[in-house]
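Hi there, hope your week has been kind to you so far. Do you reckon you could talk me through the fold, stretch by stretch? Thanks so much in advance, here it is.
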Amino acid sequence: MIDRVKTKGKAVASVFMIFSLILIAVPTDLRAQPATHKVQRGDTLWSICEKYYGDPAIWPKLWEMNLFVTNPHLLKPGDLVTLIEKEDMLKRKTPLDKSSKGVAGSIPSLKGMDLGGLTTFSKMGYLSLHKVESWGEIYGSTKSDIVAQKGDKIFVNINRSAVKPGDEFRVAIPIPVWHPLKDRLPLDPPIGSVISFRGTIVVKQHLQQDYYLAEVKDVFKEFGVGAIILPFEPMSNCIQPLSTDPKLYGNIVAAEDNRRIIAKNSVVYLDAGFKDGIQRGQLFEIVRITKIPRENLKVGNFEELMNDSFSSAVSKEQYLADLWKKLTQGEITDYAFSVGELIIVESRPDSSTAVVLSATEALITGAFIKGFSWSEPPEFLANLPTCPSD
């Protein structure tokens, strides 16, 4: 009887010890996390993620939950940001059982893919369909006003508090973008801008008010006076590939460096984002659509056909849905050729950035993206290095 009591006591003690270790492993801030965060001056989505989760790189997920945010590094003091639920974060920290079937959209047997060898994430830029509020701009140089070089001393205006010597920022130039499938008239406004990152600077000295002396640390591409200043946005190179519902989501509207021709490993920008159901890690087919020729049917170039849709009053969502019906339902009048695959590396409210993983021909802007669904890991991922995904 005594031995049985001792054994039972040891078991209870073991369970208590295991439970205590689990509680220790979970950050205190996570266990006591509130449901919302009241924005303070200087807050950004990644600083909020760093505070509550210890991981600033998950800021895109927080953005998806707060669609009122238009700029992740320009939050309005007093706004309430809905935080990722504690249970969701605990699930992120708990590895899946090997026998688990996983969640819809992911392949449990497929590890994260390290895309750091394909592109440098901090240099790839993004598409913004709205005006980007910068943190400041370069307004002078001790050397050339047109072409900055590494080591140059420059003068910058940074309209943020708590800037100090040693702080680093990215330098960018907005490049206007017009939709490639729409006829462009001389006075037509662009649909947005590609924010092209050109280099980095480090603050050296506070001069007066919002004015500072800085030094050019890196130059990726040409920039000079008038270039804007933006903060760094942390992002992991490791991405978990996700399956996607087969339908049309949008178009490739621009490529890095304003290239017209796109190939494998190119960085491209899409006119659809997480409001359209696009998430980081999703795989898409790149498709070229053509009319199926029939007797007595005028076969025009596809750009002309799309111009008809753009000139009408239908929304982007409606014309994509109508086009999908022409590809899949009833009397099929259009055919989609798969010409490559891409993976989403960053998603914003109404745009996203992707890397082309494969291409069977030279691609051009205007190509459509179609959801890619699979039951086994696709071959074009086989040569990518793996990594532990988030």
Q: What stands out?
A: The two ends are 49 Å apart (CA to CA). Residues 2-25 form the longest helix (24 residues). Residues 238-387 form one domain. The longest strand covers residues 192-208.
